[in-house]
Design goal:
heterodimer, A: 350 residues, 9-stranded mixed beta sheet, B: 150 residues, alpha+beta, 4 helices, 6 strands
């Protein structure tokens, strides 16, 4: 097998105690009918361990609500896998934080979508911001690395410069920025719409790069949805394109594999109840768009991407973004390179 | 001494206001002056909002304001004997001439507004001149995943 699976993002449950306007998975306060049990997840983690997976991120829904969470993270820890968890902070009490700390997560992510008014509006809960902030401080006091995760949209992008300072003062270690996409509840739109346009994208990129420059102690990283960018400007490493099916996968709450939890329509027909993760990783066609991408045959690549020097590395940007906007891959509407540089047909080397 | 006080009082007449002080029901006629003093903002924040602030607010206020003394501005109400009857830090409250009362700013907004905004500059207008970079291998940050600080 040419590709080695190193990272799995796990949707432990679709159950959530919030109902966010931008939720790409349209989570509710109910579990899906066929969700994997804690025992089944433990089995999955054993399989991942055998496959050489290095990192698991537990997401949701709200993963803290998953029955048997402790068994799952203990099993992950005992198998020597690096693990993290993304939460909205609402139920991250001191007791839960102590429990997490026991099994040494590499980081706990807390969603922060702006300051109080904006965050609570997006998350439809008047207590959400306070809970998230409180959870951040408790974890920092408990020496847990905290990564704030902000999903950028039309309602919150102007708050980002001040939010950067705020998060830095709180003492978080990392800040991950990603873009709201037209999927789940965000696809239906809310009052005024959440989705950004090209002008906002440009402003967000400038903000992100400025924050990285001004706050070198804070690990600020643009997620894949910003597509390719020169090293160091909006993320530390050289971006190597969508990792879905290359070295990473998402697994939904019912055990289906997919390139990314943001690519929910592109999921395996069979779940881990029918086939092993190894089998799905090696044979599922849901990864073909990435694995079989051929720069000599770019019929499904449009616009400036088609002749872009970076197409080979970038493969048309964020797959889930491209798919959610256009229903096809390799045509991400938001691209750092297209936004800031005119000539992309050849590499400009100093 | 008495004549000096009279002069001061005369000058102060320009500062006479009608006010219903916090916790009181009736209006009073008092002098309102502005003074500056070196104090700890974090202490003022707690003193101003008392039980209305949570432990979370206190923790954040300490991080934002620090614990050193800084020069702060106060509104001070004096009675006819020039004794102070009430004061407030102008960062946290103000005298509302229309309402004739002391109005408090939102205790969350105070903390947020006390933060310096990052200087935002576009640095991408120059030609792209990136050297080839050796990557660590596949690098990406899936939405729903999590970055880590090494």
């Amino acid at each position: 097998m040419e590709y080695k699976l190193t990272e799995v993002v796990v949707e432990l449950t679709k159950k959530c105690n919030l109902s966010c306007a931008h939720c790409g998975s349209s989570c509710t306060n109910q579990e899906e009918p066929q969700e994997l049990s804690a025992d089944e997840w433990r089995n999955c983690i054993s399989q991942m361990s055998e496959m050489g997976v290095e990192k698991i991120v537990f997401s949701g829904g709200e993963p803290i609500l998953k029955e048997g969470l402790e068994e799952i993270i203990r099993h992950t820890y005992e198998n020597g896998l690096k693990w993290g968890l993304v939460s909205n902070g609402l139920t991250l009490t001191n007791d839960v934080i102590l429990l997490l700390k026991k099994y040494k997560p590499f980081a706990v992510g807390i969603s922060i979508d702006g300051f109080k008014e904006t965050h609570n509006k997006i998350r439809n809960n008047s207590n959400s911001w306070q809970s998230a902030t409180q959870a951040i401080l408790h974890m920092i006091e408990g020496n847990i690395q905290v990564c704030a995760v902000s999903t950028v949209n039309r309602l919150n992008y102007t708050e980002l410069p001040r939010l950067a300072s705020w998060l830095n003062i709180l003492g978080i270690s990392s800040w991950q920025l990603q873009l709201t996409m037209p999927e789940g509840r965000a696809a239906k739109g809310s009052e005024g719409g959440l989705l950004i346009d090209q002008d906002i994208f440009r402003e967000v990129c400038i903000t992100l790069a400025s924050c990285r420059k001004n706050l070198p102690g804070l690990n600020i990283q643009a997620a894949d949805c910003f597509a390719y960018a020169p090293v160091g400007l909006i993320r530390t490493d050289d971006w190597t394109g969508c990792a879905g099916g290359i070295n990473a996968i998402g697994m939904d709450a019912c055990g289906h594999v997919m390139p990314c939890l943001s690519l929910r329509p592109i999921r395996s027909v069979e779940s881990v109840r029918q086939k092993s993760i190894k089998h799905l990783w090696e044979t599922s066609p849901v990864f073909d768009f990435n694995r079989k991408f051929d720069t000599n045959n770019t019929s499904d690549v449009n616009g400036r991407c088609k002749k872009c020097f970076y197409l080979k590395a970038c493969r048309g940007g964020c797959a889930s973004q491209s798919y959610s906007y256009y229903g096809q891959f390799h045509n991400s509407p938001f691209c750092f390179m297209k936004t800031f540089y005119k000539n992309l047909t050849e590499r400009s080397v100093a | 001494m008495n004549s000096s006080l009279s002069l001061i009082k005369e000058d102060l007449m320009r500062h006479k206001v009608e006010v219903t002080l916090p916790g009181e029901k009736s209006k009073k006629h008092l002098f309102l002056i502005i003074i500056k003093a070196k104090t700890k903002l974090e202490v003022d924040y707690r003193a101003t909002f008392g039980n209305a602030i949570s432990l979370l607010h206190v923790k954040i206020a300490k991080k934002i304001f620090g614990t050193d003394e800084t020069e702060n501005e106060y509104g001070v109400f004096l009675d006819n004997d020039l004794k102070m009857v009430f004061s407030f830090n102008t960062l946290f409250a103000d005298y509302d001439r229309n309402k004739k009362e002391v109005v408090y700013r939102d205790l969350d907004s105070i903390l947020v507004n006390a933060i310096n905004q990052i200087d935002i500059k576009n640095t991408f207008d120059e030609a792209f001149t990136q050297e080839k970079v050796a990557t660590k291998g596949p690098v990406g940050i899936l939405k729903y995943s999590l970055v880590e600080k090494e």
